[in-house]
Amino acid sequence: MADTAIFDVDGTLVDTNYHHALAWYRAFRRYDITRPLWRIHRGIGMGGDTFVPQIAGEDVEREHGDALRDAWTEEFDALIGEVQPFDAAVSLLQEVKDRGFRLVLASSGKTKHVEAFLDLFGGRDLAEAWTTSDDAERSKPEPDIVQTALAKVQGASGVMIGDSVYDCIAAGKMGIPTIAVRTGGFSTDELAEAGAAQVFESLGELQASLDSTALSAPSR
């Protein structure tokens, strides 16, 4: 039983994963580096510090790592106005909160991006706290952000709600179960193999099934 619901933001509450993939593709092309979009997508959900060497290799990280991350920011900034929250994002968060859970949004995104996303679905009013890349030295799949999120609301035990294999891995390193949704484009098998306890097609499906999950009622 958990007392805290830890929601990932990118790809879980807001539809950003393919915007991220396109921004990374364009950032790489600035340096005449081409990686297929499907391969780039496989890395979405991990932090930029891990993403570049994982997708493009250690040599590219050494030569262009910081410049690529700056280029990605510029490319994503140009797309951020197109981002929208997923259906049922607000109603799911409200119901989880109404059930008595501490509610925290665990993002390792840049502060300006996270704040823009919160405004899309009223996250500042719904959540007790949220995180950004400023809150942890290491990004997912390391557990720092998840640990920080739990600490921000003084939670004793948590359940993670995320869309990527990296959410599952990060939470698993802390012994926290993950409920996964397929909104980020990862398959049911991928999410289950990464440690997801349950996988739902959408936030709406998750909301309709809350009584069969770790979000049925908080521990006391």
TrEMBL record:
Organism domain of life: Bacteria
NCBIfam families on file: HAD-SF-IA-v1 (TIGR01549)
Listed Pfam families: HAD_2
GO molecular function terms listed in the Swiss-Prot or TrEMBL record: phosphoglycolate phosphatase activity
Any one biological process term the GO annotation gives: DNA repair
UniProt-recorded name of the protein: HAD-superfamily hydrolase, subfamily IA, variant 1
Keyword tags: Hydrolase
